[in-house]
Design brief:
This protein is α/β, with parallel strands linked by helices and about 140 residues long. The chain contains seven helices and five strands, in the order ααβαβαβαβαβα. It has a five-stranded parallel sheet. The longest helix is centred in the first third of the chain and has 25 residues. It is elongated, with a radius of gyration of 21 Å.
């Protein structure tokens, strides 16, 4: 124990940097675990959709028209923030889709705070949907 204390006393910068790195790793891990609770994989999203979940696509109109999930609702994140969530039902499951999964994650956090407990972000966004060979339709709904 004395040797450890001597090492700490002799190397305060090294010990401090090690502690900061450990705190950063723990904080990152906690963030990733919290995010996992709000995201679903493509397979889980398909199961939710088959059970009647609403798909909300928050990409811009041009990208939506280029290819979107069947029966998806195009809704801008700003509209959700303004209270347009009345177009979706609180009691139903909701799958929010964006390009990469990052923006939809932020939207889902806001929806959860507003009482939409069944809201989830598609992990990896529309890109993961395509990589998993899921159907996309084109044009406006």
């Amino acid at each position: 124990m004395d040797r450890l204390l001597q090492f700490i006393a002799a190397n305060p910068l090294l010990v401090g940097a090690t502690l900061l790195m450990a705190i950063a790793v723990i904080a990152t891990e906690l963030q990733l675990r919290a995010r996992m609770l709000l995201e679903v994989s493509t397979a889980e999203a398909v199961r939710m959709i088959n059970r009647g979940a609403t798909v909300v696509d928050i990409r811009d109109k041009a990208r939506f028209e280029a290819g979107h999930v069947v029966d998806a609702v195009l809704m801008a994140p700003a509209d959700l923030a303004k209270g347009e969530e009345g177009r979706i039902k609180k009691k139903r499951g909701i799958v929010v889709i964006c390009e990469s999964g990052n923006q939809s994650y932020r939207v889902v956090k806001a929806l959860r705070a507003a009482g939409f407990d069944g809201a989830f972000s598609l992990k990896g966004g529309i890109g993961s949907w395509q990589r998993d060979n899921q159907l996309l339709v084109t044009g406006q709904r």
